[in-house]
Automatic annotation (TrEMBL):
InterPro entries: AstE_AspA_cat (IPR055438), N-alpha-Ac-DABA-like (IPR043795), N-alpha-Ac-DABA_deacetylase (IPR053138). Residues 79-269 form the Succinylglutamate desuccinylase/Aspartoacylase catalytic domain. Its cofactor is Zn(2+). This is Succinylglutamate desuccinylase/Aspartoacylase catalytic domain-containing protein. The lineage of its organism: Eukaryota, Fungi, Dikarya, Ascomycota, Pezizomycotina. It comes from Coniosporium apollinis (strain CBS 100218) (Rock-inhabiting black yeast). It comes from the Eukaryota.
Amino acid sequence: MKLSRQSLAAALVGLASAQTNFTGDVLQGAQVVSFLDLADVPSNAVTRYYLRVGELNGGLPLHLPVFVARGPPETLATGKKLSLSAAIHGDELNGVRVVQRVFEGLESVVGTLNGTVIGIPTVNPPGIYLNQRNYFTASSSGFLTNVNRVFPGVAPEDGASGPQLLAYNVWNGLWGNTSQVDVGIDLHTLSTGSNSSLWCYADFRLPYVERLAKLLQPNTIKIDPGEPGSIETTFVSAGIPSITVEMGAAKEWRVSLINRAVDFIGRVMEDLAILPASSASGGAAYVPDLSQTYIITTFEGLASNFGGFVEPLVGVDQHVTAGQQLANIRNVFGDVLQTVTAPVDARIHQIAVDPSTEPGERVVQLAYNSTDPECADGCVL
Ligand SMILES: [Zn+2]
């Protein structure tokens, strides 16, 4: 649906200048809001809210859990505002624990914060309920929508679907059309069925994004122009530095990656002067340790040509050479139908862990630096 630019602008101006809209409901002890003005949030405290983001088929109200850690009153204006979000894909759950742990940690220091931290531990509760990636809309027997492709959403009067309305209400009702966010970090894992380590997408064309990516000290930094409609790219397009952090496999806690992501957000809060710099640095800017970080422009996916069963022959982050065998695709009797080989020297970025496969499924993804100049800002082949 085409959105009228004027109606969107009018709606956004109206929302950006609005005061908090408390619906009067209280859920699990938290006030329900449809618009949150950070000036109305208690200072020197971590406060929980539920953000009303629409209704499901039949009218069941949908609410997102929200944390806000606000420092002393004046720091709302003088300090930076950091947004954390997780589980926009309902099977990607490591980030949930990251957001929870960051706010647990902020409880004891919130009175000394120089700024504000906003967190949504679960952006897509319907996806989590259905134990899968997308948001289910029920009409016409049902559709599945990737919520990370519909930001900044669509206004209800312009005919928003459920996921578009969710995105609109987060973008405007919590993030104030970016007026309540200076830096955004969106936490993911791979989709169900694959494995990788800690890595991120980063659009180096916007200042501070490269710094954010390096503060993560990940196994891989994917220089990438982004995906329209994703949280990261919608922020970046609005001039708000943002990265997408990817933390291993779906549907299982990876404690070591959760620990690394929590430490990363601590470094970001120090870098933004929301938290004081650790004494070890003597006040100097943190120098990231990138000795284990592979910085690349290009992903290349290698697909199964058959339905059958995939047998990986290599592991995550292993270096491979052109021509090397990476995986066998076997039929149900065990015969090899296809051997997937590396077209170039590269590092294994993702590999299938779900044994079953189907035609066209990417069973291996390579990471490397393409020599094609068109890939300088990032390619996915
Ligand atoms: Zn995801």
